[in-house]
């Protein structure tokens, strides 16, 4: 059983939507692997306060190696959704029924990967139409858990509830020994 979490992240990610979930995951014993198009790059947050080293390029990432997938918000998901390899990785994670966690603009990556139809979801209000047009049922709630697999949330204010739902879902998928 993997205790690793894939984090799809690139330039312009939202600081708190990366740091808070990653800190919660690390505290729960998960290893974090930052994934972007190229390994070894340093990417900066939206506020340019947090430089982040990319561990793996998307060509090196395999869904089977992870216990879950985190997609922080900010401008990062909008950039990543243009790369078909990233979209395939998201589809592979979804097909393996890995827990997927997306906050704020993060669900846009799920829309582009085509994995939202028929699912209840939330996200920042500006993407409600995108979610609905892609076939999701949009809920204006702090956290929405769908299909015992997908956790979505709206904004940094919702992070405590998002983190709790994320850790609960991981515990259900990977109970402690």
Automatic annotation (TrEMBL):
Superkingdom of source: Bacteria
InterPro entries hit by this protein: C56_PfpI-like, Class_I_gatase-like, DJ-1/PfpI
The DJ-1/PfpI domain, residue ranges: 4-168
UniProt xrefs under NCBIfam families: PfpI
CDD domains: GATase1_PfpI_like
Similarity comment text for this entry: Belongs to the peptidase C56 family.
One Pfam assignment: DJ-1_PfpI
Classification via PROSITE patterns: PEPTIDASE_C56_PFPI
Protein known as: General stress protein
């Amino acid at each position: 059983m993997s205790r690793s979490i894939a984090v799809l992240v690139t330039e312009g990610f939202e600081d708190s939507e990366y740091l808070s979930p990653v800190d919660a995951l690390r505290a729960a014993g998960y290893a974090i692997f930052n994934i972007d198009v190229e390994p070894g790059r340093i990417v900066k947050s939206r506020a340019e306060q947090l430089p982040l080293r990319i561990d793996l390029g998307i060509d090196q990432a395999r869904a089977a190696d992870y216990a879950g997938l985190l997609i922080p918000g900010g401008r990062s998901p909008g950039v990543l959704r243009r790369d078909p390899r990233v979209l395939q990785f998201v589809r592979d994670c979804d097909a393996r029924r890995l827990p997927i966690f997306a906050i704020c603009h993060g669900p846009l990556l799920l829309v582009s990967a085509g994995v939202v139809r028929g699912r209840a979801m939330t996200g920042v209000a500006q993407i409600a139409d995108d979610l609905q047009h892609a076939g999701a049922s949009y809920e204006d709630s702090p956290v929405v858990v769908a299909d015992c697999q997908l956790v979505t949330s709206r904004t940094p204010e919702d992070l405590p509830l998002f983190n709790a739902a994320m850790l609960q879902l991981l515990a259900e998928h990977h109970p402690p020994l």
